[in-house]
Known about the structure:
Structural class: mainly alpha
Helix content: 55-70%
Shape: globular
Strand order of the largest sheet: 1-2
Largest sheet: 2 strands, parallel
Order of helices and strands: EHHEHHHHHHHHHH
Distance between the termini: 21 Å
Radius of gyration: 20 Å
Amino acid sequence: MASSGCSSAAFPISLLIVGLAPICGFPLSFVASRILPGAAISILAGNLFYAWQARRLARREGRSDVTAIPFGVNTPTIFAYVFLIMAPIYTRTHDANQAWHAGIFASLLSGIVQTVGATCADWVRRNTPRAALLAPLAGLALAYLCLGFIFGVFQQAAIALLPMLVLFTLYGSHLKLPYRLPAGFLAIGLGAVLVAVLRWLHIDTVPVPVVPAPQLYLPHAVNIFALFNQREYWSYLAIIVPLAALDTLASLMILESAKVAGDDYATMPSLLMNGLGTIGAACLGSPFRRPFTWATRRTKPTAHAPATPC
């Protein structure tokens, strides 16, 4: 049976998008109704594809420990798109809708680049030494996935330090929580309890944002063809294209790390789903591209391929 690697990663990424939204002028109601639905549909479609891919590999090789490639929102490009594209446009124009469209344009072009790159990426993978593919993966994980969150933890140490220690303890010891609860869920719950206690003691006075009413939010299609007529968006190609190329190379690194751990996935269909998933999400209003992410081999750790956090 194929197993998923990062089952608890999508929720924290959604919280990250919600936390950065005010920088671009997006109210939470707009994020809930126009951005997250498209992201959710593409993440669901991508994970279903990679789960099918893993099950197919498991049946072909007669194994029960195959790990599916997780599919989600790219954390580094969230920061890049927000701080280098959408936030500057919003600061200059005070038009949140224009900033949103610029992010969709960037995500759309990124998906096109990755879709085209899928046709030649296998040649790059076969002709690049494995060490050259795996070494940058560790650097990317430390620089983009760890440092920003570590700085955030110590900015709010009273709230975030204890959940971080709980996460380290659970991940490092491989302890299993009751009812198969993910460690991230416990850490978020613990943080919420700490916030409630500090507010009750009148120690934490950070204002609570207005949360949109819970309901079913369906994605809305965006007229992506009109975005190509915006000449201002094309000036950000110097940011969009290198990031898209970097993401393509990072995807190759992830595929190679999965191969080292025992799961050898074909390059072209894996990257093609990345590109098409990003294009589909952009068409549904999400300005953040979708790649597959670092997998965690919790089901069958090996001596030469240790588990890596998402």
